[in-house]
Write a structure and sequence with these properties.
By secondary structure, the chain is of the alpha/beta class. It has nine helices and nine strands. Strand 6, helix 5 and strand 7 form a beta-alpha-beta unit. The longest helix is centred in the C-terminal third of the chain and has 20 residues. The chain is globular and about 55 Å long.
Length: 284
Amino acid sequence: MPVRTSSRDAPVNAPIRKSAQSGREAANCPSVAQAAKVDTLSVRSNAMNKNVTVLTVRPDKAVGGEKCPVIYLLHGHGGNAFTWMTIKPDLPQIADREGIIFVCPDGKNSWYWDSPKDPSYRYETFISSELVNYTDTHYAAIPEKRGRAITGLSMGGHGALWNAIRHKDVFGAAGSTSGGVDIRPFPNNWEMKKQLGEFTANEAIWNNHTVINQVDKLANGDLALIIDCGESDFFLEVNKELHKRLLAYKIDHDFITRPGGHTGTYWNNSIDYQILFFSKFFNK
């Protein structure tokens, strides 16, 4: 699964705010002169009774108070809030160029569900409600679905589509890069059974918690969708199946395959195309 980064989670009882402008803060990225502001936050989740580490990147115009759209970036299994900054260290420059706020939460290995087995894992509620509300309240974010997109890599690709499809009133656009968009072929991988139980004893739960089985909740035009996967990726076939399912339901979407595997090199490239897609959505 995704690139692992060193864990730098904040203590749950110690809110923090660090700016990359003042040193080598986010994800050990080199300090560079930039107008965008990178913060490491500790955001309260009442649903989980804990604080969650979140990295944010704000363009200069948002720091100055101008309302900007937001892209929520979800990491994969084994990652954390700093994964995307590690993969894409020029996010601050992209934020300034495109006028977009990036929000990167630590989703642990949750798959971004509200777990039906473990009540301490309510990351769907955190992402689609608590974190969005926090961002809208504390930042100069456009507080409407036309100004919100969500995407992610691997586990985060599944999580982004899961949250967007189930919260179409919150998000206007969604993506997945190398996403585990059908979890059922992998019942013993990536700690999913901690959240859903053993597959053989909980098949209905697994069926109900895989993104590919959420397509029937969509009407064409509900979400602007972009999905991509590398030709050498072990998730390629499930992504092709999701593409076929969307076509069968006549849901417009962009679907891209290109050379590459389940690697940081692939995601460093693929996220550029997703940001372009979301920028066009925000500006339409």
